Amino acid sequence: MNKIGVFYGSTTGITEDLARRIAEKLDVPSAHIYDVSKLTEALVGEYDVLVLGSSTWGAGELQDDWYDGIKILKKCDLSHKYVALFGCGDSDSYSDTFCDAIGILFEELKDTRCKFCGVVDTSGYTFDSSIAVVNGKFVGLPLDEVNEDSQTDERISAWVEQVKQEIS
Q1: What is the full per-residue pLDDT of the chain (168 aa) written as tens digits?
Q2: Which residues is 141 bridged to in the sheet?
Q3: Which of 18, 30, 66, 87 sits at a 20 to 30 Å CA gap from 57?
Q4: Strands 137-138 and 133-134
Q5: Whole-angstrom distance, CA of residue 80 vs CA of residue 43
Q6: DSSP 8-state secondary structure symbol assigned to residue 39
Q7: What is the DSSP letter of 30?
């Protein structure tokens, strides 16, 4: 059984709430859900699966606490770890940078030899552009609590089941 840690960067509390909802579906106890500002190399070492979440800010930027979090993750040996990404965006007001934070996390970690899981088809999403789309799919789970919150539970449930299969 893989030990899962959920790490999120949240300024307004939305990504934190989503992290807790995802963790619950993954049967991850609340003791294994962390604000990324608490991330350490030792903490990363405790987990086989890292579920990483960030909201997208400004012109497609990471949530502030992730800038230090990325530096810590890059120091770690991630070669035997799964990484699942999720993030928040606004597909209406920021349709040209929709959930770019997921793409930034992917770009920063793709050379760490971790195994990414949980890619999501772009169908069903309305947006103009996103660096989180690689080879025609989102590299993680995009969520829009501003315009599409009625779809969040269904999207989380489907994604969690997919991630469970990929890490088993």
Answers
A1: 799 999 999 999 999 999 999 999 999 999 999 999 999 999 999 999 999 999 999 889 999 999 999 999 999 999 999 999 999 999 999 999 999 999 999 999 999 999 999 999 999 999 999 999 999 999 999 999 999 999 999 999 999 999 999 999
A2: 86
A3: 30
A4: antiparallel
A5: 15
A6: -
A7: G
DSSP 101-127: HHHHHHHHHGGGT-EEE--EESTT---
Joined together, the tokens standing for residue 112 give 């760490």
Model's pTM, two decimal places? 0.97
Instruction: Report the Cα 120 to chain-centroid distance in Å.
Output: 12
Helix (H) or strand (E) holding 149: none
Contacts of 108 (CB under 8 A, 6+ apart): 70, 73, 74
